[in-house]
Amino acid sequence: LFGFVLKNHRLPCPDCNTFAAGKCNEIVDTTLLGDGIEDIIAGDNCANTSGNLPWVTLGIEGNDSWGRRFTYRVSNNFADTTSSGSGCTPDTLDVSFGLCSDGDIDIVTAAGTTDYVARTVPAIILSHGSNGTDTASIHELENSNDDAIFVYRDFSNDQTAGFDDMLLWISPHILRKKMLDAGILP
Prior knowledge:
186 residues, four-stranded antiparallel beta sheet, single chain, three-stranded mixed beta sheet, globular, 16% helix, alpha+beta
């Protein structure tokens, strides 16, 4: 992901995995759903902020250890292809985000809490573990409800609060530092 950002000055959009998500219905060809290529619509925005990790676009493996696609969520202001800059001061032309940009993804220690692990994250990658999204765990259900709140916690095989999801995220501070070091942000 960092290599993609340094080359394209933005994070990639997710690969739509269903027409029902966001504006994925604007993709005319159904063979393009789940093809591993990021989906961008008119207006230079992501068709949806959540979907599959765009593995073909990134040139990487697209499946987790259980053979399922990785879930990927991105904050649109870090992934839009706008050429007018981020709206931050100082504004950098042809860069999706700036030094003052924040993501819209929050990570908590348990579903329904505000015990934060990380806030204003620009992107996450998620494996839903051995049970996929077929779960009764309130914590795992939080990771598959298509909002911008995710749970990160230790493994548990408890019947009602079990957890085997694996979550990685990009720190906005590390992302901005890499862009500064590359001379892309001022």
